[in-house]
Amino acid sequence: MPHQIKWLGHAACMIKTQSGKVVLIDPWITGNPACPVKKEELNQADLILVTHDHFDHMGSDIPDLVKATGATIIAQPELCGALQKAGVGSENVINGMGMNIGGTVEAAGLKVIMTQAFHSGTAGEAVGYIIILEDGKTVYHAGDTGIFASMELLGKIYPIDLALLPIGSVFVMDPVQAAFSLTLLKPRVVVPIHYGTFPILVQDGAGFAELAGEKAPEVQVEVLKPGEEIEL
Ligand SMILES: [Zn+2]
């Protein structure tokens, strides 16, 4: 069975692995105008990865999602502390205290590496994640970030099958930077995210797809609608 990766709108993504493990990344569900599901419909999750504590990533649903699913939170210690104040128990936090950039943790049979990102945050800093699935397939969720040169290193150390990259501009990479980042990351497939949610952001994935085709024609571009998924 293939892995399924569903875009839930904005930066929210759900990975259902071939063995049925579910990973939620930045599950901003309630209040996310692009999200096609309700919090109550997300009743299975093994891991919840949070890139930073801005409302459009951490949202307000995580304590309820943890209660409903028993999921383990993966995030920086400062962000885990904020979630613990909001009612998440330390038994639902990776290592009881979180992790940090450069580290790898094993949980739910998967490997999760926290990567740098260039953005801001209140509780801790902004990060991204590399998730290595049961069969070695590798997914990179960049979080919110501008382009950075060591994307090339990430792609070398962890050959990336699927990159989930923000393209919406203003707060994150724009389509030009995101397309160029493909020459550094060298993923097999890319799905653009973090656009179209607000009027201020880039509104669709067409411009990115065109630029990506010019800059990195070997990369397969999959422009999804919120709620759509791809198989890996
Ligand atoms: Zn954001």
Automatic annotation (TrEMBL):
It comes from the Bacteria. GO terms for molecular function: hydrolase activity. This is UPF0173 metal-dependent hydrolase SAMN05660649_01079. It comes from Desulfotruncus arcticus DSM 17038. NCBIfam families: PRK00685.1. The keyword Cytoplasm does not apply. Transmembrane segments: none annotated. PANTHER family: UPF0173 METAL-DEPENDENT HYDROLASE MJ1163, UPF0173 METAL-DEPENDENT HYDROLASE MJ1163-RELATED. Keywords: Hydrolase.
